[in-house]
Amino acid sequence: MGSPAEEPPLPAPDLYRDTWVRYLGYANEVGESFRAIVPVSLVWASYGVATAYVAADAIDKGKKAAAAKAVDEGRSKHAAVAVVDTFIWQALASVAIPGFTINRICAGSLYLMASMTHWPLSVRKWATTAVGLSAIPFIIKPIDRSVDFLMDSSLRKLYKTEE
């Protein structure tokens, strides 16, 4: 009897995509959900957290792209493409589009509750926050896919990435 074939080791998890750190990219959606009941400075701080996540992921992907190139020739370009691609993708998919989407969902729900209910303003604001928070899981995948399509149809055609 032979020994079982050894399976190749699994790649190390990506800190910015495969761990709890990924949720920092959603900080601004949470901030937008709470906009009706917290000072606006806290909402802007949530954008700061999400933007820091985006920048850290872009830098990480640039370092990994540079390290993957065995030869110095083209290493800087390879890293720069990785940084730019990751930063733009994350800025759109994690900050700009979801932040705007949750903002509009919350504004719309607050408006509708004001016109359709007799609830006190404080109840409507908390209900709006709940609507915003509950919408986050539903908007993520469609936005990610849309940003993939947008990037593949535009910016990514301008540069060639090596697999």
Automatic annotation (TrEMBL):
GO cellular component: mitochondrial inner membrane
Pfam families to which the protein is assigned, alphabetical: MTP18 (PF10558)
GO biological process: apoptotic process; mitochondrial fission
Similarity comment: family membership: Belongs to the MTFP1 family.
Protein name per its UniProtKB record: Mitochondrial fission process protein 1
Annotated organism of origin: Podarcis muralis (Wall lizard)
The organism's taxonomic lineage, starting at the top: Eukaryota, Metazoa, Chordata, Craniata, Vertebrata
